[in-house]
Amino acid sequence: MSSTVAGTGQPLDHWCKTQGAAPAVVDLVDAIAGGCAEIATLLHAAPLRGLTGASAEVNIQGEVQKHLDIMTNDIMMRRLKPLAAVACLVSEEEDHVVPGQPNGRYCVAFDPLDGSSNIETNSTIGTVFSILDVGEGVADEAGVLAAYSKQVAAGYVLYGPAALMVINVGDDTTMLAFDPAGGDFEVVQSGIKVPADAAEFSINMSYQSVWHADTARYVSECLEGKAGPRGKSFNMRWAGAMVADVHRVFVRGGVFIYPAMNKKGSEEGKLRLLYEANPMAMLIEGAGGMAIANATPIRELKPNSIHQRVPLAMGSKNEVALLKEYAEGR
Ligand code: AHG
Ligand code: MN
Ligand code: MN
Fold first, then answer.
1. From the CB of 241, is ligand 1 less than 6 Å away?
2. Is the CB of 220 under 6 A from ligand 1?
3. Tell me: the pLDDT tens digits for 114-132?
């Protein structure tokens, strides 16, 4: 995909309708976009308002919550909870399923601020969301988990030099840019395709001593470069925010890996299935890429809790296929 994009003039809700999204889903996407626009404005003012630090709170993940984790969660809750279409909400920052409206049909599962450790360094962060068709009035964990495969929409907003949204509502994976003047997201690149091959991988190398053999084999072969079995050299990038590392895959291919590890508390990796892995998998597969947990496609998993962590690898399909082959041998 060319890395040069340009505005097409097509607004988000119009694009959603051309993709055949149900009117209620279009309304939910619009509300999510409004929340992310509000978050973008909040982030720009955060250093001036002393909001880049940590709160005294610890979330169910066992992570110290940043002030902005809490504030962005509040924004998304305020924007979504009152909507008639919302049956319930799942957030990285909420211990349990949050009931919405009695006749709502959809669950929005979201990570309000992904890459929180990047806040203090003014580095790229994002919001990730997934819309599940849970059925009217469903607002409990079992009902949400039962609808895991009924993901009707997924996307993220990346707060970088520009605020960019990448979204899929059942067909194309498409990129939109936020226009502060107009206050809306506008299509800049539709029908994104992830290149099948890549020469760039993304993994936190500091955990090398606790990788399983399959992960260690893949990475060492990349590092052996032209002289090694891959016969080509590889670059490495690690942004510390999944949204940034996966966005790079959409722009120029590559593979993003957060693996299972031989480390207490990281046996299933770190990233959460419902509001990180599953939405990103829909985006990646919608762009012709591949997304797996160990050797299983992420879309085929059977979740057992709303904050469940999963190991993952996603991106260029020929790279992920190699990781899948090595994982099968584990
Ligand atoms: P969050 O800030 O929502 O907890 O997510 C951070 C995640 C993910 O965005 C990123 O890829 C990963 O944590 C980085 O983990 P390490 O700090 O272990 O590298
Ligand atoms: Mn996250
Ligand atoms: Mn988060």
1. yes
2. no
3. 999 999 999 999 999 999 9
